[in-house]
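Task: sequence design from structure.
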């Protein structure tokens, strides 16, 4: 009798769990900055056939709230990253930049160079600081990206 009761209980629990579906929703990122009218586009010189298109919002701010870019960037890539969105913005708008393609480390944008007055280029996605290089930080549709030249005390 105990075995039959145990088996019935086990079947009840199994069916109860099967009926439960975990619902996951991804909330839209909150607006980090007021979106400007600049536009940018990035696409590699050669395509592999595995590209996806991501549209993100990017703001590049120099010192004293000098806005260098503020708008929408479309990235067509097999692995869309913060770095590609940055390159698309700079290329489209004609902003000079120095960076390392292999790591995505951004050294200078326009005339603002890392280390000047203890200021450095710092990136974030949806308000969260980048934890890895810009070329390893993947982006999704609707992400808010910021690159700000700010004072840093290490």
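Answer:
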């Amino acid at each position: 009798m105990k075995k039959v009761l145990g088996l019935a209980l086990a079947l009840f629990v199994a069916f109860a769990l099967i009926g439960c579906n975990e619902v996951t929703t991804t909330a839209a990122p909150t607006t980090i900055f007021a979106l400007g009218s600049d536009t940018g586009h990035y696409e590699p010189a050669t395509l592999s056939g595995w590209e996806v298109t991501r549209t993100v919002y990017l703001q590049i701010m120099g010192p004293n709230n000098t806005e260098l870019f503020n708008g929408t960037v479309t990235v067509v890539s097999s692995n869309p990253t913060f770095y590609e969105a940055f390159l698309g913005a700079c290329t489209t708008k004609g902003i000079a930049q120095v960076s390392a393609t292999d790591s995505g480390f951004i050294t200078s944008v326009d005339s603002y160079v890392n280390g000047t007055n203890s200021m450095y280029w710092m990136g974030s996605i949806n308000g969260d600081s980048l934890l890895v290089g810009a070329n390893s930080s993947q982006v999704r549709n609707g992400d808010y990206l910021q690159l700000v030249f700010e004072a840093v005390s290490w």
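The radius of gyration is 23 Å.
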